[in-house]
Each structure stands twice: as structure tokens, then as C-alpha cells.
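Q: what sequence does this backbone want?
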């Protein structure tokens, strides 16, 4: 699928693999600004490699 922000092919920044939604729920989530989307390949928060757009905020409350 394409990045909803820069419209380039959406490639996971963490593992350099193209993002392939597992199902319609994931695909819908990718276009909801409030929802986090995780890469099905590496389980990291999905970040577009091209533009750096993050699909959701990282939750790192324990880090100082
Ligand atoms: Zn992008
Ligand atoms: Zn990944």
C-alpha cells in the first residue's frame, strides 16, 4: 500500500520491508490518525521509510 502522507510505497523504516496489511482492520487503522499501526514483519511501530511519518505515537512513558 502507499503511505497516506507522502504517497510513496510504504516501507517499514525498522525492517525495510514493504508494509502489507494483514486484513481490512489493519488497512483501516493505517488511515486513522488516532490508531497505532505495527509492522506485521517486525512488530515495530510503523514508520514510513520515505518521509518518516509515524503511524501512531510511540508509548515510552518509562523512559526518562
Ligand atoms: Zn511516507
Ligand atoms: Zn518492520
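A:
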Amino acid at each position: 500500500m502507499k503511505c497516506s502522507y507522502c504517497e510513496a510505497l510504504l516501507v517499514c523504516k525498522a525492517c525495510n520491508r514493504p508494509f502489507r496489511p494483514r486484513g481490512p482492520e489493519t488497512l483501516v487503522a493505517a488511515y486513522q490518525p488516532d490508531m497505532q499501526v505495527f509492522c506485521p514483519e517486525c512488530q515495530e511501530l510503523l514508520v514510513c521509510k520515505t518521509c518518516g511519518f509515524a503511524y501512531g505515537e510511540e508509548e515510552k512513558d518509562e523512559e526518562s
